[in-house]
Specification:
The complex is a heterodimer of chains A (about 90) and B (about 475). Chain A has 2 helices and 4 strands, in the order ββαβαβ. The radius of gyration of chain A is 19 Å and the shape is elongated. Chain A has a domain of about 60 residues. In chain A, strand 2, helix 1 and strand 3 form a beta-alpha-beta unit. Chain B has 2 domains: about 110 residues, Glutaredoxin; about 325 residues, no CATH class. Helices cover about 30% and strands about 20% of the residues of chain B. Chain B has a 5-stranded mixed β-sheet with strand order 3-2-1-5-6, with helices on one face. In chain B, helix 7 packs across helix 11 and helix 13 packs across helix 15. The chains are: A alpha/beta (about 90), B alpha+beta (about 475). Chains A and B meet through strand 1 of A and strand 10, helix 7, helix 9 and helix 11 of B. Strand 1 of chain A pairs antiparallel with strand 10 of chain B.
Chain lengths: ~90, ~475
């Protein structure tokens, strides 16, 4: 009996490999984006982070997803990518 | 490619067929008197004896011209078939050939035999031979010593249970269940947002153990979950224990043998289980949604393997869920709901609709948390023994739902944070208000289960509306 041939059930794509950026030595002078995914009390966590980053000399920009149940819209991701050096996405419950 | 046939009369025969043997001498008669004649023989190249024949050795002519019966006569003009007759009918053959005394000594009619091209033992092989070019998926060739079932586990293609190997034969057979082109894009599959083709669905449907006649239901269910409204991405990614619950309506549910009765959510029915499983396997394999990756469920639930059932329409006093959601009567349809596992409601004493509705309301109140309001929908699946109470009292869907909602208006004092000594709850400002447990339309009503048992079932939902998931109902098209 010849070996069976199976049809690939997957999408046949491979995820792009992306190198992680080097961690900045300091956030001083950098723009830090804080993305609130709008889970309950995420704002409390991000408010505290904002205080800490500002004290370290960073500029902080705040962003919000429309709902935590869906991926961030492409426009929002683009905004963050052109305005920020660093981004932190908060998950809270 | 479809072979070109010569103009004139074309006959397709096989020696194995007694009717073909009976008409053998007539071919010489036709060749001598009528239009140009070409005879294709399926099995024995020396048959028929009365004229020379072309051997349709690979059955290409028979397959491409959809020959179901031998003998078949085709009339070809300018390369195009314009007429055909099959089996032996003296009258039909005399008219077809224009030879008035053709087969005068033969019986008036004899049925033909099955064409080799539709022989069940050959059909899969022929389908691969002549239509596999319609498939675009990568061929994965296994080593001869490789266990195909184990290799599919190793490749990460399964949901934890064995799957049927998706060979080209099986996938092409699956595709006979739909009229859609294998390369049609049905939806964009989350979470990786890839184009989901009919072919990829068929491959996963084979793996799930489905039959071709289930394929339109599987395609429709995938269309119903892969959109922003249902939000399959969120249903996958949530830490809550939900997955797509698929409710099927219409006469087609019976035609494909779905279960709406005994053990309706349980094991034992191929259609119920493999339709739901095919949807989940497709999301896993094509969309890339895997547990521990994008699927972050804390507990999940066993229904994430498959949770699909048909409504018991004939016995329902409530009409059907699909009709309630805008589908025409007798139209096959699928409703998808982001739901957890079913929770039993026991009431063996209620004899009035009011008493039973009180029980249902009390159990629905506990969905996810007794103090949780408005965030989650639910399906109430009423059993035949319970629905009889409503039928006898003349309560239909609208009455039951309005009575349920009326009983689920909750004093805010019971719902605010700290009330009942539970931290969970609403902000204090709600203390003096009345808050509904469910939003309008937030209770879906279905009728299923049986035969006996004074039990019904609640299927709790997930974050509802635009912030989460909205149930979607779609007609099933072939």
């Amino acid at each position: 009996m010849s070996a069976p041939i199976l049809l690939d059930p997957t999408n046949e794509s491979r995820p792009a490999q992306r190198e992680q950026l080097a961690r900045p030595a300091s956030v001083k002078g950098l723009t830090v984006g804080l993305l609130d995914i709008v889970k309950a009390r995420g704002d409390i966590y991000l408010n505290r982070l904002e205080e800490l980053f500002v004290a370290e000399g960073a500029k902080v920009l705040r962003f919000r997803k429309p709902t935590f149940t869906k991926p961030a819209p492409p426009d929002l991701r683009h905004e963050i990518s052109i305005q920020c050096n660093v981004v932190i996405e908060a998950l809270a419950d | 490619m479809k072979p070109q046939l010569p103009d004139g009369i074309v006959a397709i025969v096989k020696r194995e067929c007694a009717t073909c043997v009976m008409v053998d001498p007539l071919f010489a008669h036709i060749a001598a008197n009528g239009a140009p004649l070409t005879v294709y023989t399926q099995d024995d190249p020396t048959f028929p004896a009365s004229v020379a024949a072309v051997h349709d050795a690979d059955l290409s002519v028979s397959w491409h011209y959809d020959i179901e019966t031998v003998p078949t006569l085709l009339r070809i003009e300018n390369g195009v078939e314009i007429d055909r007759t099959f089996g032996w009918s003296k009258d039909a053959w005399q008219k077809f050939t224009g030879i008035a005394d053709l087969g005068a000594d033969l019986p008036v009619m004899r049925p033909g035999c099955g064409s080799l091209s539709v022989d069940p033992n050959l059909e899969d092989e022929l389908r691969v031979r002549f239509t596999s070019s319609t498939l675009h998926s990568r061929h994965v060739e296994l080593a001869s010593a490789e266990d195909e079932f184990e290799s599919m586990f190793i490749r990460g293609w399964t949901d934890g249970l064995p799957v049927i190997p998706p060979t080209p034969e099986r996938v092409l057979r699956m595709l006979t269940g739909t009229t859609r082109n294998p390369q049609d894009v049905v939806a964009i599959a989350p979470p990786n947002l890839v184009q989901l083709t009919v072919e990829k669905i068929a491959i996963n449907a084979v793996m799930a153990g489905a039959l071709p006649e289930y394929l339109p239901w599987i395609i429709t269910a995938l269309e119903a979950v892969c959109n922003d409204e249902f939000n399959m991405h969120g249903v996958l990614a949530t830490t809550m224990p939900v997955g797509p619950v698929i409710i099927c309506n219409g006469p087609g549910t019976q035609a494909i043998g779905m279960n709406s009765g005994v053990n309706v959510f349980g094991q034992g029915n191929r259609a119920n289980l493999t339709i739901g499983r095919a949807v989940q396997l497709t999301i896993r394999n094509v969309g890339g949604g895997k547990p521990g990756e994008v699927d972050r469920a804390t507990h999940g639930n066993p229904g994430k393997l498959s949770f699909c059932f048909a409504e018991d329409e004939a016995g329902s006093p409530f009409g059907t869920l699909a009709e309630e959601r805008g589908i025409a009567p007798q139209q096959n349809a699928v409703t998808v709901f982001a739901g957890e596992g079913p929770r039993c409601v026991v009431d063996q004493a209620a004899r009035t609709p009011e008493q039973l509705t009180n029980s249902f309301a009390a159990c629905l109140r506990a969905t996810h948390h007794p103090k949780s309001v408005l965030s989650f929908d639910a399906i109430l699946v009423v059993s035949p023994d319970h629905s009889r109470v409503y039928a006898e009292a003349g309560w239909g869907r609208e009455r039951l739902l309005s009575e349920l909602h009326a009983r689920l208006q909750i004093p805010g004092a019971e719902l605010v944070r700290g009330a009942l000594d539970m931290a969970e709850g609403l902000p204090p400002k709600f203390a003096d208000r009345i808050v509904p447990k469910f939003k309008a339309g937030g209770i879906l009503l279905a009728h299923a289960g049986g035969g006996a048992g004074l039990f019904s079932s609640v299927i709790g939902g997930w974050a509802n509306g635009a912030m989460g998931s909205t149930p979607v109902t779609r007609p099933v098209l072939s």
